[in-house]
Records
---
Amino acid sequence: MFLANPNNPTGTYVPFDEVKRLHAGLPPNAVLVLDAAYADYVRRNDYESGIELVATSDNVVMCRTFSKIHGLAALRLGWLYGPAHIVAAVNRIRGPFNVNTPAMAAGIAALEDTAHLERSREHNTRWLAWLTEEIRKLRLDVTPSVANFVLIHFPTEKGRTAQDADAFLTARGLILRQVGAYKLPNALRMSVGSEEANRLVVAALAEFMGKRA
């Protein structure tokens, strides 16, 4: 069973007590894989990435990535923490050169750069709250998020749909992500960007919705 926690594209999360309850209800021959790609952004006391559950279980694996808070998406670098027998099985089937030397060097440097991590967390915490508040002022619903993006829900009326908004923003060089493939045709996902980018998107959405920013 795979559980993305926090989830993409909603930004929602499952409290650790609920994750443990889910694990307790699984048959022993089932493996629970916790995808914690966005764990570094979460500021909630009832959240855990899964390290504790892996350490105390024989059938739990946690996956992490350098693509998000570390900013190394193009290097395709990640890591897995799990029981020895599962790690051994993964090692037997992985490609012999699945990670290149530049990616490994970048990953080591990223782990040592704790100042970057803290700056990124602080920036995200500030602008995630700001985006949520400002976009809601435009009469658009925003799913509460603990990650580094917000899911914006649009009306279904002609001229105000997510597709209309996407075309409007794209024409201004502002790219949000369509999430129709996730069965969310009336929503767009916006990553938390720089201050300039965040303000530009909110201003454009205000224009799209017929309001002043």
Note: The domain at 115-208 is CATH 3.90.1150.10 (Aspartate Aminotransferase, domain 1).
---
Amino acid sequence: MIYSNHYSELNNDFHIPVLSHKAIEYLINPSLKELIIIDGTTGGGGYSEKICKILQNSGKLICFDKDLNALAYAKKRLSVFQTQIEFINGNFGNLKEELNKSGIKKISGIVLDLGLSSYQLENEDGFSYQRNTPLDMRADKSDDQTAGDIINTWTRQELEKIFSEYGEIGNSERLAELIVQKRKIKKIDTTGELIELINSGYKLSSSGAYDFYSKIFQALRIAVNNELENLENVLDDSLDLLEVGGRIVVVSYHSLEDRIVKNFMRDNKATKKGNGRLKVLTKKPVIPEEEEIKINRRSRSAKLRAAEKIK
């Protein structure tokens, strides 16, 4: 697989980790020894760097990412910790399978930052409506299906469903019909062509337009990368993989992800009458403080939830 070496020119803004201090505070259980920690969304290595400094060669960190550019950047950034890190180019939705390959049966913690990296938005094709690029959106470039494939080949009903369920767009039938009629005339290949199509069918204010574009791109990205299914898989796997006292921390950025995490923790919460296996550590989601939002505007929608396995 070929990937860009552009990471070598980047600074630490590859991805600004959101709620990083809180995430690590919840993630590391000081009562556990010989920790094995999973960073399921390594990105630029922001969380990983903080985790390694806490482990101080007394534990192991396993870094997952689907994006080879992210792993290449993280390897360079974290080279000083290379003896305690294993890098895996893989999907956290296949966590149990990937760990089995390494002979790992139990872990001490897993952290997931579900947001897009600055690198993806600013450099990779299809992720941002603010750049005119091919409609790709694949985090893992070895995957077959792109956003362009979805736009140009999925049925009207399938398009309606993803825009309604993943983008939470009202009257998604209108948008799906607009796409179907347009692609009969000409294939929709780029983000610019998609935005032009949307503008031709809707009268949007400046602020309303950005919100609408974001929802459409969110829906396509979720569909391309099977994001919600992968999240459900890793949450389910965590129940078996975490040792007693092990913790899971998830930072989500939109209501669909947060709802899945919230429901998972609620459904598996240990009670006096139930068989749940988790102690929920965050009664309400932790959100960024104003100072962090000023520094990183993309953090404004972040919500952190954490739980500890107790049996």
Note: The chain has 13 helices and seven strands.
